[in-house]
Amino acid sequence: MSPKPTSITPYRDGPLIVRGPVELRTQEGRLIDPGREVFALCRCGKSRQMPFCDSSHKLAQFSASSGPKR
User: Fold this and answer.
1) I need a labelling partner for 67 at 20 to 30 A (CA). Which of 12, 15, 37, 44 fits?
2) Which helix (H) or strand (E) holds 59?
3) Nearest one of 1, 20, 14, 15 to 51, comparing CA atoms
4) Is the per-residue pLDDT at 2 higher than 90?
5) What is the C-alpha to C-alpha distance for residues 64 and 53, in angstroms, rounded to an integer?
6) What pTM value is reported for the model?
7) Cα dist from 56 to 6, 43, 53, whole Å
């Protein structure tokens, strides 16, 4: 049985939810351990736990669609 592929789902007005195994690195190449297999990446730029979401998007009133603009 093959493992499920990794998925990244953008949530409307919120973070990117990452599900599955992934290697996350800094721009210098250092490994970032998310500590779990499902985690949220910040899209608003206001998180105090970058690159992870801490729900700051709610206070910042961040607005973004969950898919491409048409």
Assistant:
1) 37
2) helix 56-60
3) 15
4) no
5) 15
6) 0.89
7) 25, 10, 7
